[in-house]
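A.,

Following up on our hallway conversation. Structure tokens first:
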């Protein structure tokens, strides 16, 4: 058992020296063969010795001149080394000059530290009992490259966010906490990373940030603040290098705190800020780490929704209308001037504005009761459209044998002809005339005609009813007056007193349709009824030949209808219906007769 205790003392010396080395400077390690002698113990003691003239006040260990954060509670190295030296002396007395090569072996979580393998040597003791006899082998640290998916330094991590007011400013405090991992002090790089939402990242610089730490020390907790130079901003992350704040304290927790001071909290569209944090062995974007980093949210002011304008806005408008969040303020900016109005409880607003210029821009924002502004909405003022409809078209009569609808209207407009659910389209020419082709329609069919301008304005509609295609007298004067004449020794032709006397014929059959007019008259009778004149009314043609109208109907006109369906029929002064008498047939008096006019729709 003496040998067993000896081995235990060996282990005590090794562990004590190992602890002392790494508590002084975790960047210096001792590996390889070590002879257990007082000299070797002294050599271990001299690794990284503290200069005698150096004095560190434990109350002033917050920061060093190099900017690194110092560690509180550094143990008395001389006292530890004396204990180590005594232990070595005792072990030398128990072991017979046998060299025992002791190499430390420890299982270390993945780190970035690469340690070369060294040869190992068995430690045997002739004095060990058969039951206790065994090979004692200490392997050097085996450290593997962790890769990107295993970068975390702490376990059981949490992230807390709080909001407060400090010196009149809004402060967001993020507290990241996690438990340490075995051999954490062997890590060559370490960072405390905080990922912030873009709304905050877009508004901060390093002057907005302060940070502190609360980590394990060798004797007590190590607390302090990071300097501004130690706080870094990169992308959407704030980080601090914390390598010199790691120790080998097991089952201890680490806390890193970040304070963000803002004049006001930036607005969000979601109503919350989301934060992430991790302590890692490499400086990395937290989004690429496998699993979920520590995360938390904090309520954030929400931006009012942007206003919606009633589109479009024209230069002739005197108000701008739209919708927005109820019971807020709508603010418009137009050519450097500002106009405001209230959004009513139903979400509608109306803002009075002066005359607007075509092409000018209107910028609108909603301001809520807390003074937060929405994103802006922009709209461009357009030229006012033509809102005056064309005048009602004038439509010519439409007859049953016609295949066009004709009339007059505003030049350049479109003609819409509507007949029993069917539409036919044409256009008004530069002189204001239109002609739209249609199928022939039955009499009494109603046709509607409208004009539409380029702006889409529609004229009042005009309606016409289809007339059956016919030819007829439009105007027949009720009386033909002849001049007063003195009859002497020879026959005389008495001319008409009204040289402009005429007939009018309306022919709806279309241009070029032939027709003939016939005339038949009664005898001339004296007003007292006592005397008549046979063959007194005659028709005189262009060759001056006369033909009595008393015996039978006589053709007095033959022709065809022109473009105008109304034809005026008249004769020269010495042609047409005249009175022709001889001296032996007349008496002094006034005579009259009746003429019957007949129109024939063929030549």
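Then the amino acids I'd put at each of the 603 positions:
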């Amino acid at each position: 058992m003496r040998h067993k205790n000896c081995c235990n003392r060996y282990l005590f010396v090794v562990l004590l020296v190992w602890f002392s080395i790494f508590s002084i400077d975790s960047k210096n390690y001792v590996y390889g063969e070590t002879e257990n002698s007082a000299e070797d113990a002294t050599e271990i003691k001299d690794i990284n010795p503290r200069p005698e003239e150096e004095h560190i006040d434990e109350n002033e260990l917050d920061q060093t001149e190099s900017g690194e954060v110092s560690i509180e509670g550094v143990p008395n190295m001389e006292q530890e080394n004396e204990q180590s030296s005594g232990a070595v002396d005792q072990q030398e007395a128990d072991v017979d000059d046998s060299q025992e090569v002791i190499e430390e072996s420890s299982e270390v979580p993945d780190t970035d530290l690469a340690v070369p393998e060294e040869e190992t040597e068995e430690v045997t003791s002739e004095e060990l009992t058969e039951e206790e006899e065994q090979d004692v082998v200490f392997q050097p640290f085996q450290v593997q490259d962790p890769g990107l998916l295993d970068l975390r330094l702490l376990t059981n991590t949490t992230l807390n966010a709080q909001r407060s007011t400090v010196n009149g400013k809004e402060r967001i405090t993020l507290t990241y906490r996690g438990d340490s991992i075995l051999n954490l002090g062997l890590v060559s790089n370490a960072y405390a990373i905080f990922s912030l939402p873009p709304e905050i990242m877009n508004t901060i610089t390093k002057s907005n940030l302060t940070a502190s730490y609360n980590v394990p020390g060798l004797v007590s907790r190590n607390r302090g603040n990071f300097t501004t130079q130690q706080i870094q901003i990169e992308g959407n992350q704030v980080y601090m290098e914390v390598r010199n704040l790691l120790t080998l304290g097991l089952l201890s927790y680490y806390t890193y705190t970040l304070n963000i001071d803002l004049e006001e909290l930036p607005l969000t569209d979601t109503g919350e800020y989301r934060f992430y944090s991790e302590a890692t062995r490499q400086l990395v974007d937290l989004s690429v780490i496998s699993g979920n980093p520590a995360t938390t949210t904090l309520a954030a002011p929400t931006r009012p929704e942007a206003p919606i304008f009633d589109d479009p806005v024209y230069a002739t408008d005197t108000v701008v209308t739209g919708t927005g969040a109820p019971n807020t303020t709508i603010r418009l900016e137009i050519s450097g001037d500002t106009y405001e109005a209230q959004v009513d409880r139903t979400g509608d607003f109306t803002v009075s504005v002066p005359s607007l210029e075509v092409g000018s821009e209107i910028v609108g924002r909603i301001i809520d009761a807390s003074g937060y502004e929405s994103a802006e909405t922009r709209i461009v003022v357009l030229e006012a459209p033509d809102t005056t409809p064309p005048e009602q078209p004038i439509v010519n009569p439409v007859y049953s044998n016609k295949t066009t609808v004709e009339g007059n209207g505003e030049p350049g407009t479109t003609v819409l002809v509507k007949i029993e659910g069917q539409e036919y389209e044409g256009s008004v020419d530069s002189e204001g005339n239109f002609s739209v082709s249609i199928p022939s329609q039955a009499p009494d069919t109603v046709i509607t005609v409208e004009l539409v301008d380029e702006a889409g304005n529609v004229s009042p509609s005009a309606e016409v009813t289809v007339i059956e295609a016919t030819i007829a007298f439009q105007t027949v004067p009720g009386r033909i007056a002849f001049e007063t004449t003195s009859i002497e020794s020879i026959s005389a032709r008495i001319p008409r007193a009204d040289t402009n006397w005429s007939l009018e014929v309306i022919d709806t059959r279309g241009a070029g349709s032939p027709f003939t007019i016939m005339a038949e008259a009664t005898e001339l009778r004296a007003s007292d009824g006592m005397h008549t004149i046979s063959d007194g009314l005659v028709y005189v043609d262009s060759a001056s030949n006369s033909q009595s109208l008393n015996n039978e109907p006589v053709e007095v006109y033959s022709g065809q209808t022109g473009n105008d369906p109304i034809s005026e029929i008249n004769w020269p002064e010495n042609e047409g219906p005249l009175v022709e008498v001889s001296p032996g047939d007349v008496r002094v008096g006034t005579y009259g007769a009746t003429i019957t006019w007949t129109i024939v729709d063929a030549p």
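The chain has four helices and 38 strands. Curious whether your intuition agrees with the design.

B.
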